[in-house]
């Protein structure tokens, strides 16, 4: 019965270090659908071996299209009544999928379900604070009743590629009135946060997509999600801390000052990739031009 009910949809890009562990953590019978977003590492080889074994079904994008496109493709191609979206660096605890299915069975009016998501050693990924458990906020591990999103035509806006596609999805979900439930006893483990190597691309996508979301979702209630012009300004300012001139200053600072600053801005905000101020400005202008030449997909209102 369960085998025909649940599809695990896993978008993957260059995840050779984690994808096998993610797939092996699924012990609930069902369809495992992996969408390879044109990976350039050993991920395709790992998936091919698993595909031959019949354990998974593989879809391959001919070019890198982003998480939004890959999730949409997986949802459309899936056969299960329940879909569990799973990032390629997340693994499930043994009873997590069963708990999600049980709660869906007990609550036919629920459209989305999220478990607790924890980093391996860095604390909570979701919910970051108690109030966050009242609303869906991440797609790293998310249960979806397929009939609910098909009826409401809620899928991910592929214009984003990555960054803010999930925020956009959840804001539209709330606007439609789709109900959500958090299951604290169901656990998923997220790989610890890593420093991003290509912070120039990250900075561009964050400021580009934040502006696009603000334009697209204008007039639609966005609470409790943080999307705002204040957030856009924060991305602009914090993005400047990605670059080499800031790192050079950090390295020259006294040890106590260095530790204090790094503790506040650690993680993806710090990069050793050199980028001069004029390049930062052109990155911002490029994001504006992209927005000026793109009409946002109009979200349906309730």
Structure commentary:
The chain is globular. Helix 7 (199-216) packs antiparallel against helix 8 (229-239) and helix 7 packs parallel to helix 11 (277-292). By secondary structure, the chain is of the alpha/beta class. The model is unreliable at 244-253 and 264-275 (pLDDT under 50). The chain folds into two domains: 2-190, Spore Coat Polysaccharide Biosynthesis Protein SpsA, Chain A; 199-292, no CATH class. 40% of the residues lie in helices and 18% in strands. Strands 1, 2, 3, 4, 5, 6, 7, 8 and 9 form a nine-stranded mixed beta sheet that branches.
Give the key terms.
single chain, 302 residues, Spore Coat Polysaccharide Biosynthesis Protein SpsA, Chain A, 2 domains, nine-stranded mixed β-sheet, 11 helices, 40% helix, 18% strand
Please tell me the total number of domains.
2
Number of strands: 9
Which fold name is given in CATH as the topology of the largest domain? Spore Coat Polysaccharide Biosynthesis Protein SpsA, Chain A
Which parts are unreliable, with pLDDT below 50 for 5 consecutive residues or more?
244-253, 264-275
Assign the CATH class of the largest domain: Alpha Beta
Strand-pairing-aware structural class:
alpha/beta
- Please give the oligomerization state of what you see: single chain
Chain-averaged pLDDT: 82
* Secondary-structure element pattern, one letter each: EHEHEHEEHEEEHHEHHHHH
Number of helices: 11
Shape: globular
> What radius of gyration results from the CA coordinates?
20 Å
User: Any idea what the CATH architecture of the largest domain is?
Assistant: Alpha-Beta Complex
The main β sheet shows up as: 9 strands, mixed
């Amino acid at each position: 019965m369960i085998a025909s009910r649940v599809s695990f949809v896993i978008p993957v890009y260059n995840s050779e270090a984690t994808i096998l562990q993610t797939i092996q953590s699924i012990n609930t019978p069902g369809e495992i659908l992996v969408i390879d977003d044109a990976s350039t590492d050993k991920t395709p080889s790992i998936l091919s071996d698993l595909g031959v074994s019949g354990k998974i079904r593989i879809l391959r994008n001919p070019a890198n299209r982003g998480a939004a496109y890959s999730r949409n493709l997986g949802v459309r191609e899936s056969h299960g009544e329940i879909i569990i979206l799973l990032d390629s660096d997340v693994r499930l605890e043994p009873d997590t999928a069963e708990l999600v299915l049980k709660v869906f069975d007990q609550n036919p009016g629920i459209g989305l379900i999220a478990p607790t998501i924890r980093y391996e050693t860095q604390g909570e990924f979701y919910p970051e604070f108690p109030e966050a458990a009242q609303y869906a906020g991440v797609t790293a591990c998310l249960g979806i009743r397929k009939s609910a999103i098909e009826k409401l035509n809620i899928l991910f806006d592929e214009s984003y590629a990555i960054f803010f596609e999930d925020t956009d999805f959840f804001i539209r979900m709330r606007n439609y009135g789709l109900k959500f439930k958090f299951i604290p006893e169901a656990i998923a483990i997220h790989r610890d946060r890593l420093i991003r190597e290509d912070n120039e691309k990250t900075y561009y996508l964050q400021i580009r997509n934040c502006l696009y979301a603000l334009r697209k979702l204008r007039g639609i209630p966005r609470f409790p999600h943080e999307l705002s012009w204040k957030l856009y300004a924060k991305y602009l300012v914090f993005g400047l801390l990605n670059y080499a001139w800031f790192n050079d200053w950090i390295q020259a600072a006294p040890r106590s000052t260095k530790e204090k600053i790094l503790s506040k801005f650690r993680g993806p905000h710090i990069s050793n990739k050199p980028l001069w101020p004029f390049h930062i400005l052109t990155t911002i202008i490029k994001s504006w031009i992209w927005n000026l030449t793109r009409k946002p997909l109009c979200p349906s209102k309730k």
